[in-house]
Amino acid sequence: MTEALIASPDGGATGPAALATELPRGRSPGWWGMLLFVTTEATLFAVLLGSYFYLRFQAAAQWPPPRTGPPELTLPLVMTALLLPSSLPVIWAEHGIRRGQRWRLRLGLALTLLLGLAFVGLLLMEYDEKLASLTVTTDTYGSLFYVVTGFHGLHVTVGLLMLAWLLAASTGGRLDARRHEPVRLVAMYWHFVGAVWVAVLFTVYLSPRL
Fold first, then answer.
1. How far is residue 57's CA from residue 87's CA, in Å, rounded to a whole number?
2. Cα(65)–Cα(139) distance, rounded to whole angstroms?
3. Number of CB atoms found within 10 A of residue 70's CB
4. What is each CA distance from 97 to 27, 34, 176, in whole angstroms?
5. Could you give the CA distance from residue 72 to residue 130 in angstroms, rounded to a whole number?
6. DSSP per-residue letters across 25-87
7. To 5 degrees, how large is the angle CA 116–CA 117–CA 122?
8. What is this structure's pTM?
């Protein structure tokens, strides 16, 4: 087939027939860019969580401090029940737009957006409850708690902005069966946010009880 393309009178391998036949192969630059970004952010989270355990085991006193007590699990578990399943509508939406079904894309993105907003709302509710007795400057535990959970909450917020942008783009006809790469990239990021939350949940909320 390559020889036929080179010998074709309409421009060889760069002619219209070749361009229509030879589709791009491999991952797109956007995919590699998102993978690099996610890897970089995962490294930052690994450093943060590693610092948490290092400072925890360096502390001679009880962890968390007695006046603070172990973190409550009710809100974090509800937040987990919201965030982790929120990846499913994104997967459903991505498969839908690959088939040209914009309604699936819109519905899936809207569901994920609502679940993500509920997650952030519960995180802010938890902050409101804790700030009366625990702040960033209270002690080492307080600093670590707000930095780790706040850093993750910031990433969730960025993901929500991405989802909102996709939802707006889907109503303008800029996404279809042939142009859906942004959906795949945002889905990669959102899955990453959910996976990191599992590590945050174990480190900040569950490990003090072990």
1. 34
2. 9
3. 13
4. 19, 20, 6
5. 10
6. -S--HHHHHHHHHHHHHHHHHHHHHHHHHHHHHH-SS-SS-TTT-SPPSHHHHHHHHHHGGGH
7. 100
8. 0.86
Tell me what pLDDT residue 25 has: 58
Token pair listed for 9: 């009178």
Q: Domains (ranges, CATH) in the chain?
A: 30-62+70-209 (1.20.120.80)
Residue 195 reports pLDDT greater than 50: yes
- For residues 115 and 190, the answer to whether their CB atoms sit within 8 Å is no
Report yes or no: 71 and 208 within 8 Å, Cβ to Cβ. yes
Q: Which residue in the block uniquely carries the two structure tokens 């939802």?
A: 167
- Give the end-to-end CA distance of the chain in Å, rounded to a whole number: 64
Q: Of 199, 83, 112, 85, whose CA–CA distance to 149 is shortest?
A: 199
Amino acid (one-letter) located at 204: V
Residue 165 makes CB contacts below 8 A (sequence gap 6+) with none
Helix axes 74-83, 102-130, angle to 10 degrees: 170
| Whole-angstrom distance, CA of residue 91 vs CA of residue 87 | 6
Query: What would the pLDDT profile of 118-170 be if each residue is shown by its tens digit?
Result: 999 999 999 999 999 999 999 999 999 999 999 999 999 999 999 999 999 88
Q: Residues 130, 205: contact at Cβ < 8 Å? A: no
Give the C-alpha separation, 63 to 147, whole Å. Answer: 17
